[in-house]
């Protein structure tokens, strides 16, 4: 009996030891499994960070430093050049085209045809400090745009630049009749879409009127009587689907973000279904621009489309309330703070946080000198002075020279 108890006790100890050993092995395997999961997660995390660094950092660098070019200077050495840091110099080889020979210049912008006598404003070229902007090779530009689609999106300043580029490129086309507006429309400020086709080269240069970039709608129900319409700051303009497949997109906005064209017209801001009566224009502009940036990051294919955003264009009013203009004979020697615009600064802030590369064409400082180049009273409505818009030929031609320099000069910036 005693031996039976001892054998049973020994057996129990053996079973207990085996169970403990099995439990120990299971515990060790579980710990190993958890460790492998942790290591795998850590490796995946660092891989994700690394890939994000490789993808995002170049784009941020692109956004911060896109104003720097590498051109050859007069001594055939290379310098990094900030093309927006410079001054205006006289150049008798300007203007780049004759507005009266270009059917796509609005009558209101052809200042010479509208009675302006002095031609000095036509003869100024922008000269960066450390380099020269290459003179446009029109034939090269035409061939580069072959089979492409270029679209300007914005307000009337964008339309002026659109007209300028068409006239500049037309100087290289032998058969002027091969260049035409695709719907047979006259160039007017009311039309939301204008497209000019260069049939010999199979490309179009288009303009989409979208002054706020976001949706502008009639006011919703049950709002204060003073609210006649709203800007839906979280909804991009409903014509944005037309922009997607462009090869080059040039955006601008700013001139309409003022009380006279918003609150005094009964236009207020809306986010979702919420009316934001107390929101400032600066906050609303930033919100709208972030909506635009989100659309670009999520919809645009940067392998196909090159994107530009042109900054705010300074005006030169003596008294805006009285519509008194201050058109001078020569460019200003001092710009007295007009080189700064909160709209331009917001553009930089938003673009610098985007994923898709966007080139900011910072024309605010250079244009601030050009009080001599506005339409003034030399428009199709001479009773109304205009110190916001520009004569053609004129300052917008320089914006296009810079645009074409980005597209045609730097291999890393080309869209070919």
UniProtKB/TrEMBL annotation:
Record domain Trichome birefringence-like N-terminal: where: 80-132
InterPro entries, alphabetized: TBL, TBL_C, TBL_N
Highest taxon of source: Eukaryota
Topological category with respect to the lipid bilayer: Single-pass membrane protein
Places the protein is found: Membrane
Transmembrane domains' residue ranges: 35-56
Keyword Plastid: no
Gene Ontology CC terms: Golgi apparatus; membrane
Coiled coil: none
Annotated PANTHER family: PROTEIN TRICHOME BEREFRINGENCE-LIKE 7 (PTHR32285:SF356), PROTEIN TRICHOME BIREFRINGENCE-LIKE 9-RELATED (PTHR32285)
The protein's name in its UniProt record: Uncharacterized protein
Native source species: Handroanthus impetiginosus
């Amino acid at each position: 009996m005693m031996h039976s108890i001892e054998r049973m006790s020994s057996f129990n100890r053996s079973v207990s030891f085996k169970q403990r050993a099995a439990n120990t092995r299971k515990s060790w395997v579980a710990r190993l499994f958890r460790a492998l999961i942790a290591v795998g997660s850590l490796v995946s995390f660092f891989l994700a960070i690394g890939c994000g660094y490789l993808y995002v950092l170049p784009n941020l660098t692109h956004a911060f430093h896109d104003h720097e070019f590498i051109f050859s200077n007069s001594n055939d050495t290379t310098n990094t050049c900030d093309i927006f840091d410079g001054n205006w110099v006289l150049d008798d080889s300007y203007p780049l085209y004759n507005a009266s020979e270009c059917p796509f210049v609005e009558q209101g912008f052809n200042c010479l045809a509208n009675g302006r006598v002095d031609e000095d404003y036509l003869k100024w070229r922008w000269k960066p400090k450390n380099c020269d902007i290459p003179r446009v090779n029109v034939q090269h530009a035409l061939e580069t745009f072959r089979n492409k689609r270029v679209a300007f999106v914005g307000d009337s300043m964008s339309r002026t630049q659109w007209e300028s580029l068409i006239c500049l490129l037309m100087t290289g086309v032998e058969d002027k009749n091969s260049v035409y507006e695709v719907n047979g429309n006259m160039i007017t400020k009311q039309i939301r879409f204008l497209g000019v086709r260069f049939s010999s080269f199979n490309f179009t240069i288009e303009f989409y009127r979208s002054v706020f970039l976001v949706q502008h709608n009639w006011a919703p129900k049950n709002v204060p009587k003073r609210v006649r319409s709203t800007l839906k700051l979280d909804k991009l303009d409903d014509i944005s689907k037309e922009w997607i497949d462009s090869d080059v997109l040039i955006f601008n906005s700013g001139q309409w973000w003022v009380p006279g064209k918003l609150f005094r017209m009964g236009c207020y801001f809306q986010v979702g279904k919420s009316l934001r009566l107390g929101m400032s224009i600066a906050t609303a502009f930033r919100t709208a621009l972030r909506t635009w940036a989100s659309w670009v990051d999520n919809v645009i294919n940067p392998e196909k489309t090159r994107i530009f955003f042109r900054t705010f264009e300074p005006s030169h009013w003596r008294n805006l309330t009285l519509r008194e203009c201050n058109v001078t004979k020569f460019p200003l020697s001092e710009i007295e703070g007009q080189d700064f615009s909160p709209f331009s600064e917001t553009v930089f802030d938003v673009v610098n946080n985007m994923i898709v590369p966007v080139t900011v064409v910072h024309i605010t400082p250079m244009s601030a000198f050009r009080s001599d180049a506005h339409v003034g009273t030399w428009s199709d409505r001479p009773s109304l002075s205009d110190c916001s818009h520009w004569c053609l030929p004129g300052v917008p031609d320089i914006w296009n020279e810079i645009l074409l320099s980005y597209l045609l000069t730097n291999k890393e910036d080309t869209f070919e």
